[in-house]
Amino acid sequence: MKGLKFLGNSKVELTDLPDPVPGEGEVLVKVKASAICGSEMGAYRSPNAMNGNAGHEAMGEIADPNGSKRFRIGDRVGVFTIQGCGKCFWCLQGKPDFCKQAGALSNAHSEYIVSKEVWLHPLSDDIDDGLGVLLAGDGLGVPCGASMRAGVVPGDVTCVFGVGPVGLGMTLVQTFIGARVIAVDINPHRLSLASEMGAWKTINPTETNDLRGILLDLTNGLGPNKCFECSGRQETLDVAIDVTMPEGIVVVIGHGDQKINPQRLIFHKNLRLMGNWVCHFSDFDIMLKMLHNGLQANRLITNRFPIEQADIAYSRFSQGLEGKVILTQ
């Protein structure tokens, strides 16, 4: 089959990869669309080549049901990013991300992928391919899941540190819920995108030496009541913990090596500190309800490229010139 191969040093090529073969309880999916995720950038920029690619967000059509009673050839499905065992305590609750045998989907930027049938979302015809990827993967799932678990409600003042694709999703979802969102990023283009997603205020830390003071001024000295750290940087996590109002919530989403001293501010302000890795499979129905209530999630997609132009897509994404990027087949 055709698929992307990461060559190392920010280079990709479309080449021949081994055909995947479904095992027991698995189906073969012909990929129609996949999304580039920021978590792929480490592998993309690495000097080391991969045997395939780090793609893990995809939707497509059933190519081989492999005995499935749920799906037929041609059924449209979203493929969930995390593939658990399907039988343990957590999997039965729709939370395979906590399964001890869980693994992330890989090689999603390919002609075919294999998935356990239990981790497939049927997609109705009114959901286009790009939106199907957002629903099944990180693009919409992480913003919705983190916002729900943090209890974002109308009237909240939230701050999103880092408005890459996930941070833009946070901005869009929380604005839709009714919060006033402050977006913080050093990339002017992404701050512009955050404004398009409904951000109440945008701040570029490189244009001020008092980010903390600005955030306090915007909130009458109280600070945001919920902060979402999406950049994976120590300095922004420190500011988030510092400015969040007493009894507020700080959600850590960005991957990094941040260090936290709970005695410093969390303890004395009664803060709640939460982590958020991915969404749960069981969040799908809640996201569908948001869509039916008017959430325009497709706005998160800033570009679509045929997979043959993946080199251009990855280059633009890695330079911070895009929000969510879809590769089509």
Describe how the helices and strands are arranged.
Layout: E1 2-6, E2 12-16, E3 26-36, H1 41-45, E4 58-64, E5 76-79, E6 82-83, E7 103-104, E8 112-116, E9 120-122, H2 129-136, H3 138-149, E10 157-161, H4 165-177, E11 180-184, H5 188-196, E12 201-203, H6 211-218, E13 226-229, H7 234-243, E14 249-252, H8 266-269, E15 272-275, H9 284-292, E16 301-306, H10 310-318, E17 324-328
Parallel strand pairs: 10-11, 10-13, 11-12, 13-14, 14-15, 16-17
Antiparallel strand pairs: 1-2, 3-4, 3-8, 3-17, 4-5, 5-9, 6-7
Helix pairs in contact: 2-3, 3-4
Summarize the structure.
With 329 residues, this protein is of the alpha/beta class. The protein is built from ten helices and 17 strands.
Overview of the molecule:
The chain folds into two domains: 2-137 and 279-328, Alpha-Beta Complex (Quinone Oxidoreductase, Chain A, domain 1); 141-275, NAD(P)-binding Rossmann-like Domain (Rossmann fold, 3-Layer(aba) Sandwich), CATH 3.40.50. The chain has helices spanning 41-45, 129-136, 138-149, 165-177, 188-196, 211-218, 234-243, 266-269, 284-292, 310-318, and strands at 2-6, 12-16, 26-36, 58-64, 76-79, 82-83, 103-104, 112-116, 120-122, 157-161, 180-184, 201-203, 226-229, 249-252, 272-275, 301-306, 324-328. It is built from ten helices and 17 strands. Strand 10, helix 4 and strand 11 form a beta-alpha-beta unit. 47% of the residues are buried. The longest helix is centred in the middle third of the chain and has 13 residues, at 165-177. The model has no long low-confidence stretch (mean pLDDT 95). The protein is 26% helix and 24% strand. With 329 residues, it is α/β, with parallel strands linked by helices. The protein is globular. The strands form four sheets. Strands 3, 4, 5, 8, 9, 16 and 17 form a seven-stranded mixed beta sheet that branches. Strands 12-11-10-13-14-15 form a six-stranded parallel beta sheet, sandwiched between helices. A two-stranded antiparallel sheet has the order 1-2.
